[in-house]
Structure formats: structure tokens, C-alpha cells
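C-alpha cells as discussed.
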């Protein structure tokens, strides 16, 4: 009996010692978690799209509580949701500068000829692996909707001309369409950047026009009509310097012979977005 009691006493003593060490370790090593983080995370949409540049809604909640991001910087939440989080945290909601996916191609089936017939898996990635997809323009959208399939927010639909149409109201700028497109035709841009070159062709002049009727021919008229330094020609296509976005004006698109450069104020392929009316640029006003 004494041996049994002794064993029990020893085990109890060892257990007590370990418990003390564990308690001390917890006290010294514990990490305080602000309970507001879970509350803010619950107020967020839970999309975990990463469009804010942070690892999901939990990461955004942590940064919002720390005061490093504003609630309105969430690309999915609406104005009312941002205001609710701001009230809870006692901070300013901030100004939203939404970003959306834009397609850098206007070469639908009515603008770019099909020079080879592709038969195989209905996928842009698969078609691109077979001689580039069979379209006259090597850089054109193939139209097999890999981007639409990849979009978990149903923000992309396919138009009759085979081009994907992005619904800016549903797009969260998560970047899944960028990863899905084998031609690299999508770019995430702020919604307030209205000047867009819808062409990625590296060909110039008549060579570009021979493959697509809306190709950028690098004529340079947009460079001359835009504010100094806003548009340049690089790699066979016009390039907009969005760091100078404040200088952007529809007049940069007025003389484009093909409509490759457009002024977007709403849906990308709205009829009014194809060509802007000539207008005196702001920097030309005395």
C-alpha cells in the first residue's frame, strides 16, 4: 500500500511541476489577440480574395484594427459596410479607390480572323499551346472563357464576339483572371483610370492592322494629343503612364485611326467607350 501511495505522490508531484512550467511558459509566451479583430473579420464579406493585398479577410481585419488600412480599402465591401466597421473601430472609413480587371484586347471574332481551326479541349490554355490558338493576331483573346471559369465572383461573361466582359460592380480585382489568361490580357487598374489601350500586339503599322482591325499601329497620334509624357510608344504598342493619371483626357483618343485607345467611363465595351469625341485638352487651355 505504501508503494502505491508513494507512486501516486510522485506522479502527482511530477504533474504539478509540469503544470507550473506550462503555466509559466504560457504567461511568458502568450500572444495577445485583440478581440476586435474577430468582430471586424465577421463584418467583412468573407471573400478572402486578396484584392486588398493582404492575406484574406482575417489579415485585413488585423490591419484595420491596427489602423494601417481604412475600412473602405476593402474592394468587396460596400459603402454601408465600410461605415459600419468604421463606427465600430471609431475611425474614419476612408475613401475607396476601387480597382477592377480590364481586358487589354478589343480583337473579337469580328475584328481578328481565324487562320487555323483548333479542335480540342475548350480552353484558352490548351488552344494557346497549339500554335498560339489559330488566330491571325498572336496576342489576341482566344475566347474559350478560361477567365470566366476562373472568376469565382461571376464578374465575367462572354460576349457574342468571343471577348470576356467584366462587370465592374461584381469584380473584386482578385486577379484570378490574370492567372487564367495564357495571353496575359488582363490588368488590374483603378476604376478612375479611364484611358486604356486595348491592344497587346508587338507588330507595328500595316503589319498590325493586317491581323486586327482595331490594333494599335503605333502611329503616335495619341502621344501627340495627350499631355506630355502621358502616352508613349514601347514594344510596338501605345503605353499609358498611369502615374500621370491626373493629366488623362478623352482628347488622347480623338485621332486614333483604329480605336485601339479608348476613354472608359463605365463598362469597357460600351458603345460610347469605343471612340471619344474630339475635345480641347486641359493642358491646352491658356
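Sequence:
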Amino acid at each position: 500500500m505504501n508503494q502505491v501511495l508513494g507512486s501516486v505522490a510522485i506522479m502527482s508531484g511530477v504533474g504539478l511541476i509540469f503544470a507550473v512550467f506550462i503555466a509559466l511558459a504560457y504567461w511568458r509566451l502568450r500572444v495577445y489577440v485583440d478581440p476586435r479583430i474577430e468582430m471586424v473579420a465577421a463584418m467583412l464579406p468573407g471573400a478572402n480574395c486578396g484584392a486588398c493585398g493582404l492575406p484574406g479577410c482575417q489579415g485585413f481585419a488585423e490591419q484595420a484594427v491596427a489602423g494601417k488600412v481604412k475600412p473602405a480599402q476593402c474592394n468587396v465591401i460596400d459603402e454601408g459596410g465600410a461605415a459600419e466597421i468604421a463606427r465600430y473601430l471609431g475611425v474614419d472609413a476612408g475613401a475607396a479607390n476601387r480597382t477592377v480587371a480590364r481586358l487589354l484586347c478589343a480583337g473579337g471574332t469580328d475584328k481578328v480572323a481565324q487562320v487555323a481551326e483548333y479542335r480540342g479541349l475548350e480552353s484558352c490554355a490548351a488552344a494557346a499551346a497549339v500554335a498560339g490558338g489559330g488566330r491571325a493576331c498572336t496576342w489576341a483573346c482566344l475566347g474559350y472563357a478560361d477567365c470566366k471559369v476562373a472568376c469565382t465572383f461571376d464578374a465575367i461573361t462572354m460576349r457574342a464576339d468571343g471577348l470576356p466582359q467584366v462587370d465592374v460592380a461584381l469584380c473584386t480585382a482578385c486577379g484570378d483572371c490574370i492567372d487564367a489568361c495564357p495571353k496575359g490580357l488582363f490588368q488590374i487598374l483603378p476604376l478612375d483610370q479611364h484611358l486604356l489601350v486595348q491592344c497587346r500586339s508587338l507588330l507595328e503599322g500595316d503589319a498590325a492592322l493586317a491581323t486586327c482591325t482595331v490594333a494599335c499601329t503605333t502611329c503616335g497620334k495619341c502621344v501627340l494629343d495627350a499631355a506630355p509624357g502621358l502616352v508613349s510608344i514601347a514594344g510596338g504598342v501605345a503605353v499609358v503612364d498611369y502615374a500621370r493619371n491626373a493629366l488623362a483626357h478623352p482628347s488622347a483618343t480623338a485621332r486614333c485611326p483604329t480605336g485601339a485607345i479608348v476613354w472608359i467611363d463605365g463598362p469597357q465595351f460600351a458603345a460610347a467607350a469605343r471612340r471619344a469625341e474630339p475635345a480641347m485638352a486641359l493642358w491646352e487651355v491658356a
